[in-house]
Amino acid sequence: MRELEARLDPRRFFRVHRSAIVNVSRIRELQPYFHGEFVLVMQDGARLKLSRGRREQLTTLLGLSA
User: pTM of the full predicted structure?
Assistant: First the structure.
């Protein structure tokens, strides 16, 4: 997974969890979950858990306040 992540454009693709990389343009919303965790809702309705350690990076990439 690390090798794939290194080949992708970091402005377009983001590793949200150790087993998932998403195209940031396909993120529909970021929903709060339990204990400071968040879930990404993708345009197709898929829901992916966002790693707590990656939230700040993602909100910065999306231009949102953390």
Answer: 0.84
